[in-house]
Amino acid sequence: MDLTAKAWAQSHLSATGMELGPVDLRLGYNPGVAFSLGADAPAWLIIAVTATITAAVAVFAWLTASRGSRGQLAALALILGGAVANLADRAADGVVTDYLHTGWWPTFNLADTAIVTGGLLFALTTWRSDEGESRTAARRGAEGSAVESGPASAPPPSPRGSTLSGE
After folding, report:
1. Measured between alpha carbons, how far is residue 109 from residues 67, 123, 148 in Å?
2. What pLDDT shows up at residue 156?
3. What is the pLDDT of residues 8-46, one digit of tens each?
4. Which residues of the chain, if any, have pLDDT below 70?
5. pLDDT at 77
6. Nearest CA among 155, 19, 1, 165 for reference residue 89
7. Bridge-partner residues for 65, per DSSP?
8. What distance separates the 2 farthest-apart alpha carbons in the chain?
9. pLDDT at residue 129, as a whole number
10. What is the model's pLDDT at position 167?
11. Catalytic residue among 40, 93, 112, 130
12. Active-site residue, selected from the candidate residues 2, 93, 98, 130
């Protein structure tokens, strides 16, 4: 979807763009990575670094697939989809096509939005998962200490031995 939007932007938008309200459509090119970091670096280096990072995310997603929550897997899919789209766009001419402009944020694209949304979702679902595991561990610890000390309503042992009558 992002690559189709980039192709449309290249053929229909100019640097002045279209004003639509909170988000305008304006054509821009980013030779660097996020926020144009590394814009002066050679294109081959940016492509190599982003390809390596994308591959690392793919391996992490593969390893996480069997034990990750649905939210974590959705987040990784968003990150990976955005990274692959930007990498494919960059591979053609060394730059990423941007087309969404707010005026208060650098111009970006749908793939960037997927990466950021996925990153936030992954952080949130991991934090919630860690919080849930901590509560479960605390609950198990409380149950374990109750089992070790025995039931709270059991009477203390009699100093004479058996408390049965009729002895």
Report:
1. 31, 22, 58
2. 58
3. 999 888 878 888 889 999 999 999 888 788 889 999 999
4. 130-167
5. 96
6. 1
7. none
8. 102
9. 73
10. 43
11. 112
12. 98
C-alpha Rg value of the chain to the nearest Å: 28
Is residue 40 part of the annotated active site? The answer reads no
Q: Residue 2: in which H helix or E strand, if any?
A: helix 2-12
Active site residue 98: yes
Please name the amino acid found at residue 100: L
Helix (H, G, I), strand (E, B) or coil at 27: strand
Helix, coil or strand: residue 53: helix
Annotate 54-121 with DSSP letters as a single string. HHHHHHHHHHHTTTS-HHHHHHHHHHHHHHHHHHHHHHHHSSEEEEEE-SSS--B-HHHHHHHHHHHH
For residue 49, the cross-strand partners are: none
Whole-angstrom Cα distance, residue 41 to residue 17? 27
How is residue 34 annotated by DSSP?
A: G
- SS3 of 162, please? coil
Sign of dihedral through CA atoms 41, 45, 47, 53? negative
Tokens 């409380």 appear where? 142
| Tally of CA atoms within 13 A in the half-sphere of 166 that contains its CB | 1
Q: Which amino acid is at 140?
A: R
